[in-house]
């Protein structure tokens, strides 16, 4: 049981549209009233939502929480805290932990560690054992635990036949999921073309003398998996699309009714490979930052619905790892507390479209739209985000909840700040401060 809440004076935005309305949350963790009905109900706590958007909670399809194995960089507790401060009510935990999330025992451990966290922790699982691309993980057993996204994130499945078998197998998992479908999420990268590369192949890689990864490394695997999705009828989700060619391939596949979805990260629509001119490893990511035309294509894909979701690919690393030379440093950036602001600041999109990209569309892909991202309506679970789209602030990674500070936006002026976050009826963030 939680205290009752009323979110007062905000503009409610969900998939049905926008309206000015107060929202009352009952002590059962569900929405008790919206709009006129709210005036008839009292609450234990009133939260000011004046000048703010009240939306379904944000969902991150792509979070690296590092636990188990690399807790010095992040834990489930610290990552979830950062997620809540960034407006996320659920985080999909990637399986490239140590050991990887390729077995019932490790997935159960992650689920257990996530129970007291400030956000819901949604466990994904590896497609292959050890993420080695050689033998399928026990997908049926993992699906019984609630896994709805399988991915070898960090490495794409290179074996064409093995990927086809994984997709065929995924279609038959419904008896283990209560009828729900699962998605295979792919990090698209042909390693024969990318091995030994550290940034995007182009003018800047030539200038800097850093071996570059060609766009074709990503696009060839996107092309393959679209063909496999068409032949098997299985759901394929493309992670962190980064090239203009990839966006166009997905656009064409969707036009043909092929069951594919896609996400884009904040850094792939805000930064280009020119940032690597500093040799600062904070700009080293995987897939790499691309060129101006690629950034423009990603933005266009987000605008026209080709790309379904904004994801963070939150990838914390300890300072001593990121201080290594550019070729030796691990790729990745943190992003949970900056995603909303970067989307508002950098994308010229209606607020309803932005919220959809952060909330109900990724919730559907993750198979959690019965709990997250749904309409703000009586009886629905109260997983809500309240944010001021106009609040200006300066990014300072030292103030973040993450254990790591590998943020490429240090000192950037942005707008859009989360004020409150409600998870299952509990106000876990009030006035920009975590409550526990």
Count of beta strands: 21
Discrete helix count: 14
In percent, how helical is the residue content?
Answer: 25-40%
CATH architecture of the largest domain: Alpha-Beta Barrel
**Which descriptor suits the 3D outline?**
globular
Low-confidence stretches: none
Q: Which structural category do the helix and sheet elements fall into?
A: alpha/beta
Nearest-integer average pLDDT = 97
What is the strand arrangement across the widest sheet? 3-2-7-18-19-20-21
CATH-defined topology of the largest domain: TIM Barrel
Largest sheet: number of strands, sense, barrel closure: 7 strands, mixed
Q: What value does the Rg take, in angstroms?
A: 21 Å
Question: Could you name the CATH class of the largest domain?
Answer: Alpha Beta
Q: Looking at this structure, what is the CATH superfamily of the largest domain? A: Metal-dependent hydrolases
Give the terminus-to-terminus CA distance: 16 Å
What this model shows, in words?
- The chain has 2 domains: 5-53 and 379-402 and 413-434, Roll (Urease, subunit C, domain 1), CATH 2.30.40; 57-366, Metal-dependent hydrolases (TIM Barrel, Alpha-Beta Barrel), CATH 3.20.20.
- It is globular, with a radius of gyration of 21 Å.
- It starts with a strand and ends with a strand.
- Strands 3-2-7-18-19-20-21 form a 7-stranded mixed beta sheet, with helices on one face. Strands 11-12-15-16-17 form a 5-stranded parallel beta sheet, sandwiched between helices. The chain has a 4-stranded mixed beta sheet with strand order 5-4-1-6, with no helix packed on it.
- Helix 4 (160-171) crosses helix 8, helix 8 (215-232) packs parallel to helix 9 (244-255) and helix 9 (244-255) runs parallel beside helix 10.
- The protein has 14 helices and 21 strands.
- Strand 15, helix 9 and strand 16 (260-265) form a beta-alpha-beta unit.
- The protein has 436 residues and is of the alpha/beta class.
- The chain is 28% helix and 22% strand.
- The chain has helices at 76-85, 104-114, 139-144, 160-171, 174-177, 191-194, 203-208, 215-232, 244-255, 292-304, 319-322, 339-346, 351-358, 360-366; strands at residues 5-8, 11-14, 17-20, 23-25, 31-34, 45-48, 53-56, 58-63, 88-93, 120-123, 149-151, 183-186, 199-200, 212-213, 235-238, 260-265, 309-311, 384-394, 413-423, 426-430, 433-434.
- The longest helix is centred in the middle third of the chain and has 18 residues, at 215-232.
């Amino acid at each position: 049981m939680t205290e009752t809440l009323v979110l007062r004076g905000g503009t409610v935005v969900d998939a049905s549209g926008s309206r000015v309305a107060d929202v009352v949350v009952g002590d059962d963790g569900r929405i008790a009233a919206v709009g006129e009905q709210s005036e008839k109900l009292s609450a234990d706590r009133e939260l000011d939502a004046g000048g703010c958007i009240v939306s379904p909670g944000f969902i991150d399809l792509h979070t690296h929480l590092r636990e188990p194995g690399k807790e010095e960089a992040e834990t489930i507790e610290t990552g979830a805290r950062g997620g809540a401060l960034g407006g996320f009510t659920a985080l999909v935990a990637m399986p490239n932990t140590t050991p990887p999330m390729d077995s019932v025992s490790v997935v159960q451990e992650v689920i257990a560690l996530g129970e007291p966290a400030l956000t819901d922790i949604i466990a994904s699982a590896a497609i292959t054992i050890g993420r080695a691309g050689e033998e399928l993980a026990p997908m049926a057993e993992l699906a019984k635990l609630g896994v709805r996204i399988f991915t070898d994130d960090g490495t794409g499945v290179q074996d064409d036949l093995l990927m086809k078998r994984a997709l065929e197998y995924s279609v038959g998992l419904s008896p283990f999921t209560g009828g729900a479908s699962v998605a295979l999420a792919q990090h698209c990268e042909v390693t024969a073309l990318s091995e030994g590369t550290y940034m995007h192949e182009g003018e800047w890689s030539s200038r800097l003398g850093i071996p570059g990864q060609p766009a074709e490394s990503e696009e060839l695997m996107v092309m393959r998996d679209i063909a496999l999705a068409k032949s098997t009828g299985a759901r394929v989700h493309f992670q962190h699309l980064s090239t203009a060619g990839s966006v166009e391939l997905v656009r064409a596949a969707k036009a043909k009714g092929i069951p594919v979805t896609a996400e884009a990260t904040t850094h792939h629509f805000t930064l280009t490979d020119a940032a690597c001119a500093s040799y600062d490893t904070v700009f080293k990511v995987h897939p790499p930052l691309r060129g101006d035309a690629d950034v423009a294509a990603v933005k266009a894909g987000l605008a026209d619905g080709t790309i379904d979701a904004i994801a963070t690919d939150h990838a914390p690393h300890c300072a001593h790892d990121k201080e290594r030379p550019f070729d030796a440093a691990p790729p990745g950036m943190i992003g949970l507390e900056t995603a909303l602001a970067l989307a508002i600041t950098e994308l010229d999109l209606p607020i309803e479209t932005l919220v959809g990209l952060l909330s109900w569309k990724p919730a559907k892909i993750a198979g959690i739209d019965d709990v997250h991202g749904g309409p703000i309506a009586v009886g629905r679970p109260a997983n809500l985000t309240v944010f001021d789209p106009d609040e200006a602030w300066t990014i300072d990674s030292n103030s973040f909840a993450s254990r790591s500070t590998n943020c490429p936006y240090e000192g950037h002026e942005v707008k859009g700040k989360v004020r409150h976050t409600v998870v299952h009826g509990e106000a876990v963030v009030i006035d920009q401060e975590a409550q526990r």
